[in-house]
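Consider one such protein record:
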Amino acid sequence: MLSSYLNSHTNAVVKAEVFSHDRLREPNGLALRDPAQHLAREVFCAYPNSVKAVGFKLFYTHGRRVEPVQPTIWELLRNDPEIKVIHLVRNNILRSHVSEAIAFKTEKWTQSGRINKVSSNSKQVTLDANKCRKAFETTEQYREEADHFFAAHERLDISYEDLASEPQATLLRILSFLNLPPQRLGSYHSKQNPEPLSHLIENYTELEKQFSGTPWHRFFED
């Protein structure tokens, strides 16, 4: 959603997941073999003079499940302090876990208005408590590692919840951070799973009981 918003700005370009697992597996691809050259070709290349900010999406897991290259993708980014970092997080990690489970079930990873819309009943999933706990722990660990890793960079922390509930105010913060002039931005993406968690998770009551008394009980918002 954030990429879509920023790409609607006349002075910004946001590329997709240039270091995704699929890109890293491309035969003879540069993403793994020469990440610096890959960035130079895919992202930090020539643009019209009107383009003032360029970026791409990087997930916590990108470039971490492959054989090491020199320098590694993450080290390459850390070593360039001119790169600004927008750290977009979802405060409710359970929502992220549910969304991923629904996406695997429905094979729908994005939604544009009514396009690709899936019925509420078709979304319902059953979650395993141990897998949820692992997702919570892993995500929190990744967030801490990312904050530490890019500590020397200019960084703006944004929550998905703020972007969804107050998009224009949140986007103004982002544009200011990127030194871009204010514009009213739009996105063709819409929130995929707005339903209450108690409707999306078939074993919601049982799951909530298992996390009662833990730091993660706050994720059960219904």
Remarks:
- The first strand starts at residue 12 and ends at 15.
- The first helix runs from residue 2 to 7.
- Residues 2-219 form a domain with the Rossmann fold fold (CATH 3.40.50).
- The CA atoms of residues 88 and 158 lie 5 Å apart.
